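My main concern about presentation is that the manuscript never shows what a single data entry looks like. For the editor and my fellow referees, an illustration may be useful. For illustration, here is how one protein appears when written out as sequence plus C-alpha cells:

***
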Amino acid sequence: MSDLMSIADALVDAEVFTDGDWVESKDQDPDGDVRLTQLADVGDGKWINKSARFLTSEKAEQLRCTYLKPGDLLVARMPDPLGRCCIFPGDPMPCVTVVDVCVIRPDQQKVNNGYLMHVINAPHGRQAIARHISGTTRQRISRKNLGKIQIPLPPLAEQKRIAAILDAADILRAKRRDSLAQLDILFQSTFLNMFGDPATNPMGWDLAKIGNCGKVVTGNTPSRKRPEYYGEHIEWIKSDNINHPSFFLTTATESLSAEGKRVARIAPEGSILVTCIAGSPSCIGNVAIANREVTFNQQINAFIPSEKLHMLYVFGLFWVGKKLIQSASTNSMKGMVSKSAFSDLSIPIPPFDLQRRFAAIVESIEQQKASQSAHLAELDTLFASLQQRAFNGEL
C-alpha cells in the first residue's frame, strides 16, 4: 500500500482547492448568463445536472466567483451522502457553484482527478469523512477538515491505472441501472398502450370509485407507551418501504408482536399500499404490492381489490396514474390524501381478460428486473471489492 498523506498535502500545488461561492437569492437572476450549480447536481461519482439557477456574469465578477472547468472535482460538504464527489463534465454555459460544494482542480502532473474522486467516494474515504463531521441539525464537513483526510497516493501512472479499472467497473454498473430504468419505461408504455392515461380515460372504459371496487384501509401506529406491542411477529410497513424501484414492499425495519398485531391494521397478501401522507407532495401516490401479510402506519392506505380487478392492473393503474392520486391531495406543505378522498377517486375498469393479459406482461418484466437487480448487486459487490483492493495496494 502507498504511504498515506492528507488531501491538503496532496493538493499543495493544486490550481484550485476552495469552497464554492456565497451566492444569495437576491444575487440570482433567472435570465442570467452564468449557471449556479447546486448540491443536487453533485452525485456519488456522477454529475446529475439537475439545477436551474442563474446569475449574471456581472454579478459573478462582483462576487469574485470561481468559474468551473471541465474535469474539476466537486465534493458535497453536506448530505446525502456527505462527502460525495463527482467530476464536472462541463456545460454550455459558464458555471459557478454554491458554498457547500468544494471545488478541486489538482495539479494533473501529480494527482489524477479520477483517482482522487474514487478514493474520496470509497468506503474508507467516507468513513474518514464521517470522523470529521461537524454540526448537529445540519451536518457538514469543512474544507479544512476535508483536507485532513488521509489517502494513499501512488505514482501518477498507478493512479491512472486504478482509476481506469474502477471507471470500467462503474460503467458496467451504470449500464445495468439504465437497463432497469428501461424496464420501468416498458412497463409504463405498455400500460398506456393497453389502457390509456388513468387520469383522462381516453379509451372510454367504465369508471367506478375506488371505494366501490374493493376495501380501503388506513394504517395506524400501536401505542409507543406499550412496548409489548413491538416485537418480531409481523412487519410494520412505513412509507420508506414503498419508495423503491421494486414492484413489491421492501423489508420493514420495525416489526410488531402478536399482541401488537391485534391492535394494528393488517394488509393481506395481494394488497396495494399507497402513500397518502408524505413529507412532500411529490411522494404522495408512491405505490407497492404487499407480497406477504403486513401491518402498516397511518401514512398509508391499503387497497384490497375485488375480484373484478387484477392486482397487477391496480398496481399499474396507481403507478402510471400517480397524478390522479395526487389530485386528491390537500394543498398543504406536506400533502395528504384522506381515506374518503382516496375512496372517492374514479378509476377505469377495463375487461378482466385485458387486465390478465397485462398482468402476464408485467410478470415477465418483473422477472427481468429481478435478474437485472441481482446482476447489479453482484457488480456493486465487485466494485466495492475493487475499491478496497485498489486502495490497499492489491490491485
